[in-house]
């Protein structure tokens, strides 16, 4: 499964990679119906992952390496195994215990229709009917995700009070901040009215039902959490961070979550979703900077997305005969193009001002594992959608640390005899961290190099970014500060740098040497120059 002790063991690797913060997915006590995002006890470590003492050791060791620790807090929903949910079931309709969740009577003559037409983001109805303590068919409860994740009712005073205690519990143990799960959720439109387009959540996997998401009252929660973390900072001078997962599709609505006094950051998902295309990146970067002048949190991969290497792998135009694929050069290997593009996109991202979030294994250039046997799939999205949505297991397969396949490529302790929670494909031997460590042009060393430069080049520490517009089609050029210009070639042919003397190349994502005044296909190159070289 991986555990906290395993994380401690890899902190030197993370420090060597050059990261300065670590966001941990939920490790709290949980029956694990959604990879721990169904929390049964917010202040306990699930025994599968370790103990509170082990967690304290992790924080102390991480801090010793200069790595801050950010926890995942899940305030939109609980677990059916949370004691307050059990208390709600036992207490009966109309009780204050039921009031902590969204229980309602069903519609129809026998109450056997859900109370409204909302659909779960994972698929299926957003309501499940319970049996009352006397065994009769009873009320329904709301779950915008899986049935094992009942939504909290944030208008019940116990709920905000619970989360303030939870945040304080972990802040008192030394954590540096929180990644806030489903930050556009929590409050629902009063009365939980039907919405004509309620099926869109299920159809798109995005939070688009305006009655279920993005209610004005949620911003009060973020203001109160911000005050809470600021109190800790005021007391000891250490910064604390709140970064929200806001899945709304309107960038202006997302920007509301980082207004003064609310969350510090929200993830820039449009960067992760962008096609590998210069114009698209230019537009995504321009929009993100316009909406988040105080800092964008860039992201290309996370535990919910197919890995970038796979997303950027082109479908050749004639592969399925429908003509909507991509025209590839003769003999090109789509998988190699996917890897080249993921590397180029990463180097573009690492040249941008703000924060960058990397997802475990992206520094190894791991692809998604698309052919996991159905019997090992864990994601409720797969199961609730009746298999029509593949789910997210393919990006969660354990990293190959060692080329040797022993102990799941070094993921598990030597004595392990059971399979890893998700199996690694045999081809991952070639991507193992130990081999990449010794290979100069490996993806691991590319990330290390980029992260080191990000720390040492003063222009990259500024907030100044100029996006050039006078570049040939398919070439994205940007200058940071005055001395650093990067080019990303999103085409399949080499493009000469617009300026004949672009400067000293200090980073290239192309694996083999190339002329300094040419950007190879699907490649990003960083140049350092003494003067203000125009793009
Ligand atoms: C967030 C998490 C995702 C989880 C969902 C429900 O989107 O990132 O992994 O399934 O919330 O908690």
Automatic annotation (TrEMBL):
Protein name: Alpha-glucosidase
GO molecular function, one term: alpha-1,4-glucosidase activity
Cleavable signal peptide: none
SUPFAM superfamilies assigned to the protein according to its UniProt record, in alphabetical order: (Trans)glycosidases
Pfam families for the chain: Alpha-amylase
Family label: Belongs to the glycosyl hydrolase 13 family.
InterPro entries listed in its UniProt record: GH, GH13_cat_dom, O16G_dom_2
Domain (Glycosyl hydrolase family 13 catalytic): residue spans on this chain: 1-396
EC number(s) from the headed UniProt entry: 3.2.1.20
Positions of the UniProt region annotated as Disordered: 189-213, 307-332
Native source species: Actinopolymorpha cephalotaxi
Keyword list, A-Z: Glycosidase, Hydrolase
Gene3D superfamilies: Glycosidases (3.20.20.80), Oligo-1,6-glucosidase, Domain 2 (3.90.400.10)
């Amino acid at each position: 499964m991986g555990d906290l002790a395993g994380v401690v063991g890899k902190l030197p690797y993370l420090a060597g990679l050059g990261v300065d913060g670590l966001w941990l997915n939920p490790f709290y006590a949980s029956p694990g119906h959604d990879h721990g995002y169904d929390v049964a006890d917010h202040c306990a470590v699930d025994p599968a992952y370790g103990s509170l003492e082990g967690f304290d050791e992790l924080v102390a060791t991480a801090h010793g390496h200069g790595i801050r620790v950010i926890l995942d807090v899940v305030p939109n929903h609980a677990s059916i195994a949370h004691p307050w949910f059990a208390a709600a079931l036992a207490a009966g309709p109309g009780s204050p215990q039921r009031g902590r969740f969204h229980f309602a009577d069903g519609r129809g003559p026998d109450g056997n229709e859900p109370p409204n037409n909302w659909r779960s983001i994972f698929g299926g109805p957003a309501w499940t009917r319970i049996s009352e303590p006397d065994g009769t068919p009873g009320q329904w409860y709301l779950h915008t995700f899986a049935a094992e994740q009942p939504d909290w009712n944030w208008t019940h005073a116990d709920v905000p009070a619970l989360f303030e205690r939870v945040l304080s519990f972990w802040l008192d143990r030394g954590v540096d901040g929180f990644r806030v799960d489903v930050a556009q959720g929590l409050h629902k439109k009063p009365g939980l009215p039907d919405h004509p387009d309620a099926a869109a959540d299920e159809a798109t996997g995005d939070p688009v039902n305006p009655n279920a998401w993005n209610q004005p009252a949620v911003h009060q929660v973020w203001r109160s959490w911000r005050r809470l973390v600021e109190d800790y900072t005021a007391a000891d001078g250490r910064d604390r961070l709140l970064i929200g997962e806001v899945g709304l599709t309107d960038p202006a609505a997302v920007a509301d979550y980082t207004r003064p006094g609310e969350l510090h950051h929200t993830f820039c998902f449009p960067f992760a979703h962008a096609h590998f295309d210069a114009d698209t990146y230019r537009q995504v970067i321009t929009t993100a900077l316009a909406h988040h002048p105080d800092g964008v949190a860039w992201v290309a991969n996370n535990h919910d997305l197919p890995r970038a290497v796979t997303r950027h792998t082109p479908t050749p135009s004639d592969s399925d005969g429908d003509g909507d694929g991509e025209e590839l050069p003769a003999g090109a290997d789509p998988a190699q193009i996917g890897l080249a593009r993921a590397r180029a996109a990463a180097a573009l991202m690492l040249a941008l001002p703000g924060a960058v979030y990397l997802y475990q294994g992206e520094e190894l250039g791991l692809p998604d594992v698309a052919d996991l046997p159905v019997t090992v799939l864990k994601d409720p999205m797969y199961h609730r959608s009746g298999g029509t949505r593949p789910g997210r297991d393919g990006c969660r397969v354990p990293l190959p640390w060692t080329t040797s396949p022993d102990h799941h490529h070094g993921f598990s302790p030597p004595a392990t005899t059971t399979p890893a929670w998700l199996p690694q494909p045999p081809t991952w031997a070639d991507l193992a961290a130990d081999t990449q460590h010794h290979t100069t042009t490996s993806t691991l060393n590319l990330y290390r190099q980029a992260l080191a430069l990000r720390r040492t080049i003063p222009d990259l520490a500024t907030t100044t970014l100029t996006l050039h517009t006078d570049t040939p089609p398919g070439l994205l050029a940007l200058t940071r500060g005055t001395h650093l210009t990067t080019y990303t070639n999103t085409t399949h042919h080499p493009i000469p740098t617009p300026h004949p003397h672009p400067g000293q190349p200090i980073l290239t994502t192309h694996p083999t040497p190339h002329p300094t005044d040419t950007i190879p296909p699907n490649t990003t190159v960083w140049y350092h120059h003494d003067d203000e070289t125009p793009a």
